[in-house]
Design goal:
The chain is α+β, with helices and mostly antiparallel strands. It has three helices and eight strands; from the N terminus they run E-E-H-H-H-E-E-E-E-E-E. A hairpin with a 2-residue loop joins strand 1 and strand 2. The longest helix is centred in the middle third of the chain and has 25 residues.
């Protein structure tokens, strides 16, 4: 690994562990902040910046991403019914899915999108059977929220 390697630069390598293996488990803001903090606070001299001003600049960049993450979380508090950490909600009946949810995935992994019924764009998909139209339903439960 060389300093000029754009994919795996030395300042993101910690004794053979790339920061990417850690940051891929974080939010985008969290991953960016960790990368800037890590490369600025190394104790082995492999910092990207070689001046104190450069190290401070990296830490200020990290602060921007941390502040943005905090702002997002504070805004999300206005909607406590949403799982703000990216955990989808699950329902046992399609009728229980609240109106703010526009897409769910069923037990087979099939995507259901609100308003895709061929006859009525204001409901979940339905199927026509021998006794008329009935909701595609609960036999495909559980229904898991698709987070966007």
């Amino acid at each position: 690994m060389t300093e000029n390697n754009p994919v795996s630069p030395r300042h993101y390598d910690f004794e053979g562990v790339q920061l990417l293996s850690v940051t891929r488990c974080l939010t985008s803001n969290g991953g960016q902040a960790v990368q800037y903090i890590a490369r600025a606070t190394r104790t082995d001299g492999q910092n990207k910046a070689q001046t104190v001003a450069g190290l401070i600049e990296d830490l200020r960049k990290a602060r921007v991403f941390l502040d943005d993450e905090i702002d997002w979380l504070e805004a999300a508090q206005a909607f406590p019914q949403r799982y703000i950490l990216g955990v989808p909600r699950v329902w046992d009946r399609i009728a229980e899915v609240p109106p703010e949810v526009s897409a769910v995935e069923d037990c087979d992994g099939d995507l259901w999108v609100w308003g895709t019924d061929a006859y009525d764009r204001n409901r979940w998909p339905t199927v026509t059977g021998g006794r008329g139209e009935k909701p595609l339903g609960d036999a495909y439960a559980p229904f898991t929220e698709v987070l966007t």
